[in-house]
């Protein structure tokens, strides 16, 4: 009889919940559909959803009407499901209306108790063929919290292009970064390149979940993925809706960093402005 192979103690079952936000579906219909989808896929430790999936990222004309507080219908669903599945739910992000009335693109991580463990307001709001930067107020703070993924940071979509933000998360001890996204198919290769680059640069897990399908004529890229701390892609979704499960060994971050200690060679930030220019002269 074969000896059963048990998963390592720090092995975590992650579910990439890649969903579409078709224009024909209302926000409330979508929340109900995604709730049923999550409940039909029990057993993972952590579930991750895309950016603004309930409102639909490209439904700019509906942001104001669909904006919600952290007590709103999307987060309420996430809290119910987290408790029902006894799992962590990274809810992707919502259009959040803050108490002063401003709107934000806010990522929300919910613990199995149903309590909100982390929020992150997207710092780099997107303005290329997008009204997000006109409609939403950028966030100003980062956070790293403890979750089954280890010390966990959250960034959202376009933030992938800004290594300084990732550097800050890495400096704060992040071992895994979750990236909900609504990244168009037109730039799918950038998505692939940047998710791997950020993992390699900071030797951490990247759990990146994109939207799929078509929204307001824009085709989303799917290809949600998990990249390990040495840049290997462990799992990647296709172009359509799917729940993809992948077991990851969160202890690998420490192993990779110990074996190839790049992060220890990083110079203090103050060292860089003083470096001489190519001509050997200091800039004014
Ligand atoms: N939702 C986004 O932030 C889209 C970002 C994107 O498409 C890109 O950086 O390219």
From TrEMBL:
Coiled-coil intervals = none
Which SUPFAM superfamilies did the record assign? Carbon-nitrogen hydrolase (SSF56317)
Q: Where is the CN hydrolase domain?
A: 12-250
Q: Does the keyword Ligase apply?
A: no
**Per its UniProt record, what Pfam families does this chain match?**
CN_hydrolase
Q: Name one GO molecular function term.
A: hydrolase activity
Listed InterPro entries: C-N_Hydrolase (IPR003010), C-N_Hydrolase_sf (IPR036526), UPF0012_CS (IPR001110)
Name used for this protein in its record: Carbon-nitrogen family hydrolase
Q: What is the lineage of its organism?
A: Bacteria, Bacillati, Actinomycetota, Actinomycetes, Micrococcales
Task: Cite the PROSITE patterns for this sequence.
Answer: CN_HYDROLASE, UPF0012
The family line of this record is: Belongs to the carbon-nitrogen hydrolase superfamily. NIT1/NIT2 family.
Which key words are in the record? Hydrolase
């Amino acid at each position: 009889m074969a000896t059963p192979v048990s998963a390592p103690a720090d092995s975590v079952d992650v579910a990439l919940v890649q969903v579409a936000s078709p224009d024909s579906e209302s926000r409330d219909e979508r929340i109900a559909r995604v709730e049923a989808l999550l409940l039909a896929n029990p057993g993972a430790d952590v579930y991750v959803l895309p950016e603004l999936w309930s409102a639909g990222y490209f439904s700019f004309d509906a942001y104001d009407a669909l904006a919600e507080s952290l007590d709103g219908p999307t987060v309420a669903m996430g809290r119910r499901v987290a408790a029902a599945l006894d799992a962590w739910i990274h809810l992707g992000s919502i259009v959040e209306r803050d108490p002063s009335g401003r709107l934000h693109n806010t990522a929300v991580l919910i613990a199995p108790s149903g309590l909100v463990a982390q929020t992150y307001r997207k710092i780099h709001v997107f303005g290329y063929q997008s009204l997000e930067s006109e409609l939403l107020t950028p966030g100003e703070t980062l956070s790293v919290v403890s979750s089954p993924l280890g010390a966990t940071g959250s960034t959202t979509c376009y933030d992938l292009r800004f290594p300084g933000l990732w550097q800050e998360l890495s400096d704060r001890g992040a071992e895994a970064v979750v990236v909900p996204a609504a990244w168009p198919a037109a730039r799918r290769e950038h998505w692939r390149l940047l998710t791997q680059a950020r993992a390699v640069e900071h030797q951490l897990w990247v759990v990146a979940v994109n939207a799929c399908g078509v929204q307001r004529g824009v085709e989303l890229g799917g290809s949600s993925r998990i990249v390990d701390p040495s840049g290997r892609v462990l799992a990647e979704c296709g172009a359509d809706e799917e729940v993809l499960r992948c077991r990851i060994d969160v202890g690998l971050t420490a192993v990779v960093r110990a074996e190839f200690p790049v992060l220890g060679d990083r110079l203090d930030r103050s060292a860089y402005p003083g470096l001489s220019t190519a001509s050997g002269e200091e800039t004014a």
